[in-house]
Amino acid sequence: MANANPALRKLGFSDGDRVVIIHADDIGLSHASCAAFGDLWRAGIISSGSAMVPAPWFPNVAAYCRAHPEVDMGVHLTLTSEWDAVRWGPISTRDPASGLLDDEGYFPRATSVVQRSSDPRSVQRELIAQVERAIAFGISPTHADAHMGAVFHPKHMPAYVQIARQFRIPVVIPRPDEARLRRWGFDGEALTWAVTTLRALEDEGMPTLDSIVGMPLDKPENRLEQVLAALDELRPGITHFIIHPSRDTAEARAISPDLPSRIGDYETFMDERVQAHIRRSGLQVIGYRQLKALMS
């Protein structure tokens, strides 16, 4: 296969294998997200998750990871605070000049505001501080990823790349693709830098992804059918497959207007029919711990 992902063969797969990381996002948003992750991890159906360090239930995530060191947990690098009932802000600064604070003193609600208004050096310090806090709380991060994709912008991608190099962990980032980078706002010198940098990361041995796929948060109906169809559509290569699981609790209902989809992700991936479908389909499920090992 032309231009096959080099990480596939390093992991012992063929170029045509369909390899998937089943990844739980937004862990620490609520107690319900933490409990859902624990249930799914024990059930053996998910292979990775990521913790929101600035979020209120992060200490609970960290306690779970200390008690279960085998857990594949990354850092969900967070620069936005989009909900109304619960909010959070940066852990590295309270300086409005950083561009990381809105008028209420929290992270901005919208990714576009972060990308337009935040200072790149302040973003870099905040991302580093979040990874360092996760480590200080006893998490050994297997990777880092970006909440709401806020770092996928010419101003902030360098800070994201630095996380990979400084902490020697994979970051959730696609293989070089000019069309995708242009959709993210890269052009001219920024586009050249991004393509060159992503190629250099692969040459340095950092695994990159062929696809990033997520279950939608606005279509809670027929969740099982949606999941099975999405899994069937995965192509050869390494796919980061995102779900947002949550138990149904009063706290979760107060926080998340998209809770029905989050409950749907939790209940669907607790369903044995999903595990059976994955086995029958020939999908190869891995976690970020295997990808991190390629960087050692």
Low-confidence stretches: none
CATH topology: TIM Barrel
- Assembly type: single chain
Shape: globular
Order of helices and strands: HEHEHEHHEHHHEHEHHHEH
Number of strands: 7
Secondary-structure class: alpha/beta
* CATH top level assignment: Alpha Beta
Determine the fraction of residues in helical runs and give it as a percent range.
Answer: 40-55%
Which whole number gives the mean pLDDT? 95
CATH superfamily caption? Glycoside hydrolase/deacetylase
The span between the termini is 27 Å
Which architecture name does CATH use?
A: Alpha-Beta Barrel
**Largest pleated sheet:** 7 strands, parallel
Strand fraction equals 5-15%
Give the count of structural domains: 1
Number of contiguous helices? 13
Q: Work out the radius of gyration.
A: 18 Å
Q: What features would you describe in this structure?
A:
- The protein is of the alpha/beta class.
- It has one domain (6-293): Glycoside hydrolase/deacetylase (TIM Barrel).
- It is built from 13 helices and seven strands.
- The protein has helices at 6-10, 31-43, 58-67, 111-117, 120-136, 157-167, 178-183, 188-203, 223-232, 250-255, 259-269, 272-281, 288-293; strands spanning 18-27, 48-51, 73-77, 144-146, 211-214, 237-243, 284-285.
- Strands 1, 2, 3, 4, 5, 6 and 7 form a seven-stranded parallel β-sheet that branches.
- It starts with 5 loop residues before the first helix and ends with a helix.
